[in-house]
Amino acid sequence: MKLLSIAVPCFNSASYMSRSVESLLPGGDTVEIIVVDDCSTDGTFAIARRYEETYPGIVRAIHREANGGHGAAVMTGLKNARGIYFKVVDSDDWVNREAYEKVLSLLQTFKGPEQGLDMVLSNFVYEKQGVSRKKVMRYTNVIPENRVFTWNDCGHFHTGTYILMHSIIYRTKMLVDCGLQLPEHTFYVDNIFAFYPLPYVKRMYYLNVDFYRYFIGRGDQSVQENVMIKRIDQQLKVNYLMADDYKAALPLMKENRRLVKYMYKYLEIITSVSTIMLFLAGSNEALEKKRLLWEYIKEKDVHTWRKMRSRFMGFMMNLHGNFSRILCVGTYRLVQKIYGFN
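Given the sequence above, the corresponding structure tokens read:
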């Protein structure tokens, strides 16, 4: 059995995927790199096959006959994973070699069935094109370092310090057993990947190393603002699913108030992003979609809706008129500048 399975979802990634795969190869025989080609048309699968032939037993090339989107590619990787642990590295991202070695050493320490970890967290770096000073997402002063911990040991996650897919390595069996499903033909499912499994995570470990390098700069990336506005229905689909997941998870978290608080804040952030993108779209149709989103959250769990509405941004997002929209968008721009996302 491999120590770590790494899924690399690819779609028309021929021009940049090599940097991602090359950064993962130093893991050697302890890892398997599952390159999932999501029915590309640009030679992506041919590149994946060359890596498989050059590094047999380390690289596996899987071709999906029908395009299913990022979530389908991740799920294909998980379905084929043979490692104790599982991570996703997108085809335009890469990992730091020194940090990689430390991560693998940690996983080796916790590979036994009785001492396994459900989730390992590390830092990630926003590799934003054209920006010389790179923003690093760290979790110091929020979660304990260099020891096994539980949700009860966590502090308050401030804005901009949330757990994202780039931070996470899951225990493969836990991820399969919890029933994770990611919808097809939908962007932004990385939020579900970093949200749905959390009530099933019991044992965690934080390694304070800058492991994952998250590239931002391609004009067609899903996180670009103009792209998000065009794909707002996919963002909303993820938002609705997260509202469902949060409501369903509440009975699992009765005695875990810190996890409830964290998942609530994550849902609140995603709802705020959806609302801001709808404000930026500006059409009457977009404003109606905003109303329907907040109405859905109210119907799903009125307590959650009231809590969101009681906060300043939630209150402003639900006022009518241009002033509230301008204020909300301005606040979003400020947070965007501080934390360096998009």
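The chain has a mean pLDDT of 92. Try to locate this feature in the token string yourself.
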